Amino acid sequence: MLFKWTLLAAYSAIAQAGTVIWDGTFNNFNSPSDFDKWSWANQVGTYQWYIHGSGATSNYLNLDSSYKNPAQTNEKHGLKMTIDTTATWNSQMERAELIPQTTANLGTGTLFYHFSIKRSNTNAPDSSLEHQIAFFESHFTELKYGVSPNPTNLQWHVGGVSKWGTPFTADTWFNFAYEINFSAQTVGLWHSTGGNPLTKVVQNIGASTYTNSADFHVGVLRIVNRNPPEDWYWSGVYIESGSINTAIGNGSGGGGSTTTRPATTTTAPSSTSTPTSTSTTTTTTASGPYQTQWGQCGGTGYTGPTECAPPATCKAVSPPYYYQCQ
Ligand SMILES: *[C@@H]1O[C@H](CO)[C@@H](O)[C@H](O)[C@H]1NC(C)=O
Ligand SMILES: *[C@@H]1O[C@H](CO)[C@@H](O)[C@H](O)[C@H]1NC(C)=O
């Protein structure tokens, strides 16, 4: 009898598992100029594209089937993202970042933020310089590259504190999912390489989880502006609610399939709900001090802080002239 009940419970969990609430795959984009269709006045498509340099979008974003994780069967192509000395936005830092464009609430319940990244030996990222990757405005979870004590690692940080890392080897796809429980204010990490299913590598820990649904940065910020250019490859970007789809390639966004295979993920209870206070003092290292609420955080000619003290985020009040922390 007990066994039967367990099966039933498992079945109902599967039935509502793995709904893609935002599809960040690049299937809806056929050329770099498609990203330019989005503007503050015309908020179309699945990505906001405003954090970039003054060059043509094709200097920073390019699509090709060779740029995706080959295991991502639902994607026609991936994204090659290039940062160079022109890739500046509201600062001298090199930045190219896509932001979800959606009416979905990306900050409620438990969500899985999926993405895959790769580098090659051509235009390889410089491991002597700090990079922030796939981050939120408040940096409660992000990857870093080029930071001590393992600058050649992709290093997962929670509130500025390193929690896990893996060598960022060339020509290998690194798949990730941030498991964010916005109710419990915790975040955990899932990871695999290539076409292997995701496994949970760090159990959920306390974090200042927050998003206004428009501050997940699918992109790279490099602190120092100098040559040569760097290429970063992106694939398999989507956000899912319910239970995690651990497969790379099936069940992700873009293919129209929103149900997952019955992944038998034994999500262990987060036994280490560490207090969040540890994470509050360490987040300012990278991009300088935070601007306070209602302060300016961007705009033509502005050179001050571009990141807002959480939970405020930088809003385009009168772009391109004035941006304010709200
Ligand atoms: C998220 O956290 C809440 C509150 O601690 C908990 O009840 C819930 O089970 C968690 N959700 C998941 C999917 O782990
Ligand atoms: C994806 O689905 C196909 C058939 O639908 C199956 O053959 C393949 O093994 C699946 N791949 C993964 C990674 O689950």
From TrEMBL:
UniProt KW keywords: Signal
Transmembrane spans: none
Keyword hit for Signal: yes
Keyword Signal: yes
An individual GO BP term: carbohydrate metabolic process
GO terms for MF: cellulose binding
Domain of life: Eukaryota
Domain (CBM1): residue spans on this chain: 289-326
Signal peptide residue numbers: 1-17
Pfam families named among the record's database cross-references: CBM_1, GH131_N
Listed InterPro entries: CBD (IPR000254), CBD_sf (IPR035971), GH131_N (IPR041524)
Bias kind Low complexity: ranges: 258-289
Gene3D superfamilies: 2.60.120.1160
Cellular component aspect of the GO annotation: extracellular region
Region feature Disordered, mapped onto this chain: 249-290
Record's protein name: CBM1 domain-containing protein
Protein species of origin: Panaeolus cyanescens
Lineage: Eukaryota, Fungi, Dikarya, Basidiomycota, Agaricomycotina
